[in-house]
């Protein structure tokens, strides 16, 4: 059953405005539509699917010998964020009792007082559901950011960074634009699903981390190509499906605004993908699958802040502009000398900025009103709201500066702590992060190949019959087992000097 009036389906009239009441005495679901809650729960599951999508995307973009490391850092960052958000992240971002425009307080520490009352972001769903949904937004942003460690970063320091980053970067940015007390919210900044905290937050933070981490070994950069385009495509597909929960669910109910946001996301993404492919074709005269994936992601990024404000024709235009802007933005890292290895800034930072600017020009109050709650809002130039452009630019500049500077400070501070140095050694970089940091590999044949090289003699030193060689790297348990078996049958094992660095390289 729907509702015929503007506003929440049922007025929240509980005497307990914090919890909604005792669930043993009253039905705390009475103020919400079951369909709205079901839709946001499903949307949350779709957003969760974006985390492995990012993992597969980053793994495919990296070299084979660091593919597993990218899977690990992305998936582990999800666990770090889940705890941080439960502990104090949600309170810092969405508590309404803080009397300042920049950051929340500890009113909801460990999710205290987060129960059946309406969410701070929408009267359509309860706070408990809203907190879970928003936790996944932070997790996706962290997963995007941690891609900066690719191929040369140690994994444990990066997890320490993510916890501090979520506290000092993501939570303030989310507070600014989505909390009623935030300065961006107070001044009418239009950010539908996270252009400021998610896209600019991840893009600028990844750029800062990459700057502190330093460039990869220049010898390894010659003729570099992503090692697995199938994984890149799989990750992009998972991200595309998940983005429908990310953008569609940000209407916080099963309503027409959610349908419009989903339509806009697909239109912006596909037009950006086509534009990116055309731009790459003009140079290579080939149709790139990596280019299509990069374009699709850049379009979905641009749709994140804009899909709930624009009409569909404007989303098509946004896709073309985002495809062009993000494609050319991939050159910025060479201009500034920062090795943003996975182009997080070019696709997410720049794409988010483009979407936020489009809101000022093409934001439409009629689209906003499709959720049945937020009627009568003047959005962008189409509604005669011309001052919004200045506030959109102010939000972009402030968020970019905050995310970059604070992330760089956090990264440098962690790097100075004994035992938490961010950068792996040069030898580890040549060997690969999988072997150095994990002792596991994404592909079985790589493990077999490594052990084969470790057991094989140098070409100029052939092995004698009955002599086994001591492996110098690989799976230690395998080596020990083989040594025991050989010792029991053929006598002692002769140790062989390590193989050369050239033979170790992937």
TrEMBL record:
Its main location: membrane. GO terms for cellular component: plasma membrane. It is found in: Cell membrane; Membrane. The chain crosses the membrane at residues 38-58, 70-88, 132-150, 159-178, 190-214, 226-246, 258-279, 286-306, 312-330, 350-370, 390-414. Residues 39-443 form the Ammonium transporter AmtB-like domain. Coiled coil: none annotated. Residues 462-506 are annotated as: Disordered. It holds the Pfam family Ammonium_transp. Keywords: Ammonia transport, Membrane, Transmembrane, Transmembrane helix, Transport. Belongs to the ammonia transporter channel (TC 1.A.11.2) family. This is Ammonium transporter. It comes from Stachybotrys elegans.
């Amino acid at each position: 059953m729907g509702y015929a009036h503007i506003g929440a389906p049922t007025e929240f009239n509980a005497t307990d405005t914090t919890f909604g009441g005792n669930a043993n005495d009253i039905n705390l679901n009475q103020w919400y539509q079951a369909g709205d809650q079901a839709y946001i729960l499903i949307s949350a599951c779709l957003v969760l699917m974006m985390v492995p999508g990012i993992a597969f995307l980053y793994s495919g973009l990296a070299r084979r010998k660091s593919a597993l490391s990218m899977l690990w850092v992305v998936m582990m960052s999800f666990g770090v964020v889940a705890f941080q958000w439960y502990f104090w992240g949600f309170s810092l971002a969405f508590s309404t009792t803080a009397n300042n425009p920049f950051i929340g307080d500890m009113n909801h520490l460990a999710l205290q007082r987060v129960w059946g009352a309406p969410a701070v972001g929408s009267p359509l769903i309860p706070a408990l559901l809203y907190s879970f949904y928003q936790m996944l937004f932070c997790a996706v942003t962290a997963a995007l950011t941690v891609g900066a460690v690719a191929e040369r970063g140690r994994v444990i320091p990066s997890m320490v960074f993510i916890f501090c980053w979520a506290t000092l970067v993501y939570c303030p940015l989310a507070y600014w634009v989505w909390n009623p007390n935030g300065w961006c919210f107070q001044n009418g900044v239009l950010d539908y699903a996270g252009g400021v905290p998610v896209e600019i937050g991840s893009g600028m933070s990844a750029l800062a981390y990459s700057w502190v981490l330093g460039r990869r070994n220049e010898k390894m950069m010659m003729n570099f190509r992503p090692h697995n385009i199938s994984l890149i495509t799989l990750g992009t597909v998972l991200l595309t499906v998940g983005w429908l929960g990310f953008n569609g669910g940000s209407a916080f109910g099963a309503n027409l605004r959610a349908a419009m946001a989903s339509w806009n996301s697909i239109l912006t993404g596909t037009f950006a993908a086509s534009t990116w492919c055309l731009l790459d074709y003009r140079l290579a005269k080939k149709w790139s699958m990596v280019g299509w994936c990069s374009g699709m992601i850049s379009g979905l990024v641009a749709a994140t802040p804009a899909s709930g404000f624009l009409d569909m024709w404007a989303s098509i235009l946004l896709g073309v502009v985002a495809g062009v802007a993000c494609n050319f933005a991939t050159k910025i890292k060479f201009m500034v000398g920062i090795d943003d290895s996975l182009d997080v800034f070019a696709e997410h930072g720049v794409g988010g900025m483009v979407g936020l600017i489009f809101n000022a020009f093409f934001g439409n109050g009629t689209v906003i009103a499709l959720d049945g709650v937020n009627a009568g809002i003047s959005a962008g130039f189409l509604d005669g709201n011309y001052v919004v452009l200045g506030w959109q630019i102010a939000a972009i500049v402030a968020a970019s500066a905050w995310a970059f500077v604070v992330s760089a400070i956090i990264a440098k501070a962690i790097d100075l702590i004994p035992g938490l140095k961010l950068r792996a050694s040069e030898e580890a970089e040549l060997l690969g992060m999988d072997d150095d940091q994990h002792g596991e590999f994404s592909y079985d044949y790589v493990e077999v190949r490594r052990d084969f090289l470790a057991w094989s003699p140098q070409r100029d030193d052939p092995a004698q019959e009955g002599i086994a060689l001591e492996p110098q790297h690989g799976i230690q348990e395998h080596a020990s087992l083989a040594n025991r078996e050989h010792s029991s049958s053929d006598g002692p094992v002769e140790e062989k000097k390590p193989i050369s660095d050239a033979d170790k390289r992937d």
